[in-house]
Amino acid sequence: MKATALACGLALSIVLQPLPAAAGTPVATGTGGAVATISAQASQSALAILDQGGNAIDAAVAAAATLGVTDPFSCGIGGGGFMVIYLARDKRVITIDHRETAPASFTPHAFLENGKPLDFDTAVASGAAVGVPGTVRGWHEALQRYGTMDFKQVLAPAIEVANKGYPVTEIFSHLTAENERKFQLYAPTSALYLRSGKAVQPGAVIRNPGMARAYAEIAQGGVKAFYEGPIARAIVAAVNTPPLNPGKTARAGRMTMADLANYEARIRQPLRSTYRGYEIYGMPLPSSGGATVAEALNILEGYDLKAMPRAEAEHLYLEASRLAFADRNAYLADPEYLDAPVAGIVSKAYAAERRKLIKRQAARSAHAGDPYSYQDDQSVPLRPQSKGLQLENAHTTHLTVSDKDGNVVAYTFTIESWGGSGIVVPGYGFLLNNEMTDFDFSGPHPNVPEAGKRPRSSMAPTIALKDGKPAFTIGSPGGATIITTVLQTIFNYIDLGMPMDQALNAPRLSERNGDATSIEPGFPGSAQARALQGFGQRWEAAPEEIGAANALVFNPDGTVTAVSEGKRHGVGTALVQRRGH
Ligand code: GLU
Predict the structure, then answer these.
(1) Per-residue pLDDT tens for 491-520?
(2) Is 396 a catalytic residue?
(3) How many Cβ atoms are within 10 Å of 367's Cβ, its own excluded?
(4) Domains with residue ranges and CATH for the chain
(5) What count of other Cβ atoms lies within 10 Å of the Cβ of residue 396?
(6) With contact defined as beta carbons under 8 Å apart, do 158 and 45 qualify?
(7) Which of 17, 50, 355, 430 has the fewest CB atoms within 10 Å, i.e. is most exposed?
(8) Residue of the nearest CA to atom 2 in ligand 1?
């Protein structure tokens, strides 16, 4: 593959006088609109749009666009996502699926070489991993159908941040360092995020005029500017001839202008389930998030958790998650390519069957059940077999916004791994996703790659209603741990009775039917850990921070509390339009 020269004029410039970083405020209560994101600038963008009279949908897009600038390794216009929206006037919940699709050139052999699955990291850092980005189409649908503003208005705050610059945090620098090898492959990426081949240091200020230009072209030309214009041509060129540094190699993809022009977002009905008097609205397939959370909650609903010691309740949470993941791993994939037994998986009767498998001692591993007998139509002949957990990377971002009229957004979007494929689109400053590695590399499996298909996701933006009104929202990044973070936060909040900030800050335990439960640093050896070990629970050897959640709580007195992380991923920023009552 030929090395491509640096697009120097548009390379990100790193200036050495730091801008003051806005202090994180992880909890805020008040009236009017509210927002919680992991980035101070993104939360401020949402608030600015709300203050200008925009609604929650407008503000969510503004925050997302800003996150694309300040958190470019976890999200952006080079990726895709899932938005769940509560429309106050209609009293209904809708979702916008703007997951990336496989280019038309894809086949089930896309990630096989000589019949064997490709090395995962090699597959990630390549043009072949890039799916057709869905984010801009998703934002377009959100604004056109449910917003009040246009791209020009909602992208303005992000353009300002991209032009003015933002300070590099410890985490940003650390993530860059972790991805140095991937970023060293590509010329525009090294120009943006590396200095002499090494990660940009904390305190530097990053400006990204290329991304400002991409946003300005979208503001000017609308959705077509991205899918049919010069940006589309630049994406196709970057995928098919990755802009490598001299001496580096990476696999090319095969994407066409038609793949981009044909990309469609899907308006989908939310996946609705109930839990102890709450209506839980989550994301349907191709995200496994909603169904897996619903199955686990349905299993847990059969226990009087409040009456139990905490360790016993948490043991049940882990076992319910294990069972739900066994089904997720076996059955769930893009519903346009497969008749997945979702109705069975989320039925209360099926949960009652699954519950019988839970013992006082932790299971080693769970098998998928037979949800087909709980479907309305039981004639489906195919019974996919359970499969181990596919290797997945994590990261992504989640944000949540409400407005004074009662509209609510829970939005998770991603470029898949930290830094996605590692390919920055020359001249446009945004990273392309590696979402295609969310497919199972080898079959038979419902989630094998196919032309036009959307890889199974774990993203789980969730809006809960009580008595017909929004009660809370929750969502998180973290690959498959997204599901357990959302599930555990709901369990902490509803069953353990924690206020939402405590529910978020509690140590996260993620059981995904693997060999052992994922845990966070500081957890092993704690009293909580020892009590759970009494139930036979086992921990992964290498603790790691899990997720970066954001939530809203609609209080009985009419106020809203926005909640972000108090410790993880730095400190998040929760803001309300008017503080206090
Ligand atoms: N690609 C992941 C998914 O769709 C999300 C990215 C992440 O957080 O790992 O489930």
Answers:
(1) 999 999 999 999 999 999 999 998 899 999
(2) yes
(3) 14
(4) 30-267+396-476+538-577 (3.60.20.40)
(5) 28
(6) yes
(7) 17
(8) 479
